[in-house]
Amino acid sequence: MGLYSATLKKKTKWLKKDVLKIEKEIGPGVITGGADNDPAGIVTYTTAGARFGYSLLWVLLLCTPFMIAVQETAARIALVQKKGLASIIKNHYGKKTALLVMSSLAVANIATIGADIAGVAAVIGLVTGTNWLIYVIPVAALVGYLVLFKKYRVIRKLLLALTSLLIVYIISSILARPDWFSVLQGFIPAHIPTVSFIIAIVGIIGTTISPYMLFWQASDELEEHKTILRPKDIEVDTAFGMLWSNIVAMFIIIAAASTLWVAGINIETVAQAAIALQPLAGQTAYILFAIGVIVSGFLSLPVLAGSTAYAVSETFGWREGLNKKVFSAKGFYFTFMLSLIVGSFIVFLPVNPVHLLYYTQVLDGFLTPFLVTILLLLSNNKSVMGRYANNRKKNALLTLFLCILVFLDIILVSQLLGIF
Fold first, then answer.
1. Half-sphere exposure of residue 98: CA atoms within 13 angstroms, side-chain side
2. CA angle (137 as vertex; 332, 349 as ends), nearest 5
3. In the predicted model, what is the mean pLDDT of residues 240-246?
4. CB-hemisphere CA count at 13 Å for 326?
5. Confidence category of residue 338, pLDDT binned at 50, 70, 90
6. Residue 14 confidence (pLDDT)
7. 373, 378, 399: which is closest to 388 by C-alpha?
8. SS3 of 414, please?
9. Angle 19-22-28 (CA atoms, 0-180°, nearest 5)?
10. pLDDT score for 273
11. Is it the case that residue 377 has pLDDT exceeding 70?
12. How many CB atoms lie under 10 A from the CB of residue 162?
């Protein structure tokens, strides 16, 4: 009995060591990937599944290696330079360029914050049977409280926990009883590329790979006090985070396709998606979907406001970081709270946050290829990166992704000008 107890203690000790090792290796990449599936993104994925069934799943599969390459490159550059992305852009391309990038990012982020707060509040109101508007301020206030009064380690653990809870979407999707043969077919491009189908592709890629993710992960890597001497850790963390992000997104599309698409129902908000899901997939799937929206909101809001605060602080040379005390990084925390306040204010305006989100995604659609171009130039500059410069494989992925983004921008401009 004593031998068994000693063996069990040893195994438990080894297990704890393994868990601690994994916890140290993962972080910014996983949190960034999880935050990508925010309520606004859920609307995009659910709408895509409701309108086109399983036929857009291949887009997410295609996005995954591009996401990993872009995010890992941004993180690697930040760690080599020991500066955030906005600081690096300012140092190498001038303050005017940094101001333009920062302003565009802030506008898009704040509009997304408004859409996300509206989504979380609407679902809470739906579950509780009360007016959803009364939850707008409490949701923003809770996020602000956690960031202002809790230590970085607490925030980090909370964000990682919320990221793992996104598994509810996978369970919800399985409960919707999809046609798995049709799901597999969705990973093969076979749909006739109509204008609306191409626009849906633009929406998915724009939602999946957003500029705020680059700024957040680059700065969060520095918060973790990681070193570029172990670049493999960054690659593993980023790959795991982006893979998890897109697996969750795929299951959101699958859930929508197996219920809303089959029933011929279109939606515009996450609340409508939850309501439609209840009679089609059952009470359990409905509750899990609602929980997922709330979890994703509380995960994405600190990341969106945080990436804005990082970009603004780095552009103006302010002290920044979630590991700093409020009084020692006043500008950073002021920007963080202002982003939440303005985002909350947008919810009360006579403007549909989802429609506003669409136009900010157009803005992101032009900002992302510009940032990818900067990443390509910096990551191949030996004087900047030294022996950590890009290899051929990463250059090929980033160049191909840039070409795809430019093509999609042409589609967006054509749509706005009424050519299509």
1. 21
2. 95
3. 91
4. 13
5. very high
6. 45
7. 378
8. helix
9. 135
10. 75
11. yes
12. 20
**Mean per-residue pLDDT for 268-275?**
75
CB atoms within 10 A of CB 212: 28
* Separation CA 205–CA 67 (nearest Å): 10
Q: Which of 359, 373, 357 is nearest to 405 (CA)?
A: 373
Q: Which residues of 137-146 are buried (b: 16+ CB within 10 A; e: fewer)?
A: bebbeebbeb
pTM above 0.85, yes or no: yes
Question: What does the alpha-carbon distance between residue 419 and residue 414 come to, in Å, rounded to a whole number?
Answer: 5
pLDDT for residue 281: 67
Position 134, amino acid = I
Scan for tokens 């219920």, then name that residue. 259
Question: Does residue 73 contact residue 394 with C-beta atoms inside 8 Å?
Answer: yes
As given in the structure block, the two tokens for residue 137 are 């301020």
Cα(6)–Cα(10) distance, integer angstroms: 6
Token pair, residue 132, equals 């959803």
DSSP states along 129-168: TS-GGGGHHHHHHHHHHHHHHS-HHHHHHHHHHHHHHTHH
